C-alpha cells in the first residue's frame, strides 16, 4: 500500500493552488515525452462504469486551428455585447484565450456511443459520461502543471462548429478545448481576480448540513 507523508500532502496542496488557468504562453515546443506522460496520467481518471469515454484530439493543422480561433473571436465579440458600460470595457481588456500562442491545441471529447462499461451507472444520469471526461481534463491539467506546463480551458467557442472542423465521429461531443504550453508568467491567484474582474468569494458556505 502506498502511503503519502505530510510533505507530499503539502506539495499536493501547492499543486492545486498553482494549477491556474493560463492564457499567456511561450512559443517553445512542448517535449513530446512530457505531453505523452500527462496523457497517460489522464487515463487514470475515474469514469462511470469504467466507460473511459474521453477522446483526445491534438489539433495541429493550421486551418483547423484557425477555424477554432475564428469561432472564439465571434463568440468573444458577442459576449462583450451582453455587458454594459464599465463592465463591457473590463471584459474587452481581459485576455481569455491563448489560441494564437499555445504550441498545443487539445480538444477533449466524449464518445456518447461508447459500449465500454455496458451502460453501467448512467441509465438515470447519462450526463455521467461527460462528467467522466471532465475528470480526465482535470487530471491532465494537474499533471501538466506538475511538469511545468500551463493549460487554458477555452469555453468561449461554438462546440458543434469546432467539432465539425475536427472531422470526428458524430457521437463525439466536445467537452473541453485546451491550450497547452509553457506559461509566460506563473501565479497562484486566478487571472480574473488579478485583473479586477471579480474577487474570490471566501465567505460563502459550500457545505450544508441536512
Automatic annotation (TrEMBL):
<dbReference type="GO" id="GO:0016491">
    <property type="term" value="F:oxidoreductase activity"/>
</dbReference>
<dbReference type="InterPro" id="IPR000415">
    <property type="entry name" value="Nitroreductase-like"/>
</dbReference>
<dbReference type="Pfam" id="PF00881">
    <property type="entry name" value="Nitroreductase"/>
</dbReference>
<dbReference type="InterPro" id="IPR050627">
    <property type="entry name" value="Nitroreductase/BluB"/>
</dbReference>
<protein>
    <submittedName>
        <fullName>5,6-dimethylbenzimidazole synthase</fullName>
    </submittedName>
</protein>
<dbReference type="InterPro" id="IPR029479">
    <property type="entry name" value="Nitroreductase"/>
</dbReference>
<dbReference type="InterPro" id="IPR012825">
    <property type="entry name" value="BluB"/>
</dbReference>
<feature type="domain" description="Nitroreductase">
    <location>
        <begin position="17"/>
        <end position="182"/>
    </location>
</feature>
